[in-house]
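Quick one:
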Amino acid sequence: MWLLEKPLIDEALQDIERVIAESNGRITDADGISLKKLYRLYDRQHGTISELQNADVNGAVRETLHDLFAKTRDGRRLSYIRMQLFRAVDICPMCGIQPPSQLDHQMPRSKYASLSVCRLNLVPICGVCNNKKNASDASSFVHPYYDHELRDLPFFVIEIHSSPVTHRMSWKFSINELVVGNPVLASKISTQVGVVKLFRRLYKETNNMLSHLLYGAEDWSEESLNFILQHEYNSYHRRLGTNDWHTVFMKALIDSPRFTLQEARVYAQRIVPANRGVNG
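Output:
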């Protein structure tokens, strides 16, 4: 979630030869030199180019590149780009909920057609996030390949609340902008969270996660609860990193003085069977 390993610039440059071959003569070797220059600029500028730099690529070439993106779909001649990108990503970096199913243009294809088939600008994300992001301004979103100063900064926060009378729990999601430090990056995170409706979607996911985790908690001891929480946290942190919602939620439960065996038992008593038990 949030960040991905950046594709290699050398592989992106090698793609240009295949793109030229697929253009049926509409993109020349000279155009390829301009594209290589642009790709290198994009990489040096940490995943962005200006409109002026985009316009350095001939307009007819940009139109051709825009159309060639269709050839990255399954079974077509440039589909190897899609396959290699998807092979490296297990879960959508924008929500951390669903596996990726679509390639998003970080800088929108409608405005920056010169980057239409540049793997450095193509990010595997889920359909829900892609539909919500649409052609939004790329500068308003975390670039999962380039914004790696966010790595290991504990900026994603979940606060656990509990009624002292009923012991019923609730929790609140937030972004700690002070931890991020960089106001531009903090703004990107905030905008992205709002556009993809992340907190609303995560409330359902965290409830589902906790239902699986606490099923049968009526028979647990405080020691067994603490052991399970720590085990789950270690597993998620190792596999998904510091700011994935699974990791953060487990850490919040462990650290919260408001979450005790009593809360776990009350929650477990309220767990409803999947589909109300219809398929049981």
